[in-house]
Design goal:
Blueprint (H helix, E strand, L loop, with lengths): L3 H12 L5 H8 L3 H13 L19 E9 L6 H10 L4 E6 L6 E7 L2 H12 L5 E8 L13
Antiparallel strand pairs: 1-3, 1-4, 2-3
Helix pairs in contact: 1-2, 2-3
Length: about 150
């Protein structure tokens, strides 16, 4: 599906996503027109989903990050769907992942401080439907955060 030119462009985009197409083309050893067409093709095919800003939440005053492992009451019809729909509405939930196994869902939550987290937990998380069990893991440090793929 991808040829060497596409791979070069993707490697350069991952290394420096902020550069303009002309610079990206130069780093990929292709013309700007070729680079732009290849990027458009990869976007249309879904290879490139989006180009996003990475935000440092701590600089915006969010110093607490918690990972919640949630086990759902699967005796309830549509427990997953109901939970996911409601969890998406909580603005402090940055990520929702589903799993097979003892844990059904993981929520990544941010808060300004522990008092704010406690308020979110009590008023927004514990009111989500179909929760059978919940375990909180307090984030201490991010050792690796990398979505660069070996293309």
């Amino acid at each position: 599906m991808l040829d060497d030119t596409d791979r070069r462009i993707l490697r350069q985009m991952q290394a420096a996503p902020e550069v303009a197409v002309a610079e990206l083309a130069s780093r990929s050893n292709v013309s700007a027109a070729v680079c732009w067409r290849r990027i458009e093709k990869m976007q249309a095919s879904g290879v490139i989903k989006a180009q996003e800003a990475q935000i440092d939440w701590a600089k915006l005053g969010y110093s607490v990050e918690v990972s919640l492992r949630v086990t759902l009451d699967k005796t309830q019809n549509n427990a997953f769907d109901g939970f996911i729909i409601a969890a998406r509405e909580v603005s402090e939930v940055l990520e929702i992942q589903t799993f097979l196994g003892r844990v059904d869902v993981r929520l990544s939550i941010i808060a300004r401080d522990m008092a704010h987290y406690q308020q979110i937990y009590r008023s927004k998380i514990l009111t989500l439907p179909h929760i059978a069990d919940i375990e909180a893991l307090m984030h201490v440090a991010r050792i690796k955060q990398d979505e660069v793929l070996p293309v």
